[in-house]
């Protein structure tokens, strides 16, 4: 079996198992003479390395070959901020592989605070290559070696130049496969069994699936909408809080028998967010879905329909009854021949008397009344 065929067979296995990229790294270092290698997630704007939660526990991320646990922790705790190569990689984005010594001389490197960490491992140069890129991040391969060994430097650059297309193709195939594994298809029945409005969302609040109750909530309610496939709250602070809560739950330790869950109220709505998978993969990408259920924070079981709430005038009761049946203020106007200004004055009084923010809370309260009394 020739080298290219052996590599392709190994890369094919990485599609369904990202951890096998560590074996790929090992093969590449052995073929090129490099002593160590890393596959890492990088910030698109700064090229800074993304250090995941699990690295301290399992050395899972980034994908490492040749680095001891001691040196890995040393880098994170003491040398991460003093790494001068990161700034070079940001300025000279490695669409094609190159050696960092081409832009940052070894003599200068030896004067940096980063040198003790490198010198202790007999590293003085690295070849970097972009393996994958998206709008917010990119994934790098770095091969490390002694700069005095020009043959290794040449071998690393030549190898990555020769196989860069294949390496990129198989990483992208694996990325697509991992996204498909988090597909919402298997959750549709589960969503419909929820008693509340339920959404399946990613860390960016992109809605991947929703049940009928959620569809009605975003259609009829004023508080929660879907805009450009993202959950949207009109209030800017509320919108930011929702995104932060959904994103930050990935920091919790995931256990399949006890998944992390957070409960919070925003803008008159009660949210429950449950993490449905491990928040980070081996390089730190968060592809886990979240189950988000939503109820009115004001909903309370009752033995009377909401329009019979004491203190409402006859017109206000008529308005509440229209809204409870899924109608809008404009429907109330048309049904009773009321001027727009008058109708909205009634609506303002109703919100104050019922202590609500939008009509979805009336609809939810009436639905709860029907479920409890029919």
TrEMBL record:
Any single GO BP term: regulation of DNA-templated transcription
InterPro entries reported for this sequence: Sig_transdc_resp-reg_C-effctor, Tscrpt_reg_LuxR_C, WH-like_DNA-bd_sf
Name used for this protein in its record: HTH luxR-type domain-containing protein
Organism phylogeny: Bacteria, Pseudomonadati, Pseudomonadota, Gammaproteobacteria, Alteromonadales
Organism of derivation: Ferrimonas aestuarii
Domain HTH luxR-type span(s) in chain numbering: 312-363
Molecular-function annotations in GO: DNA binding
Pfam family, one: GerE
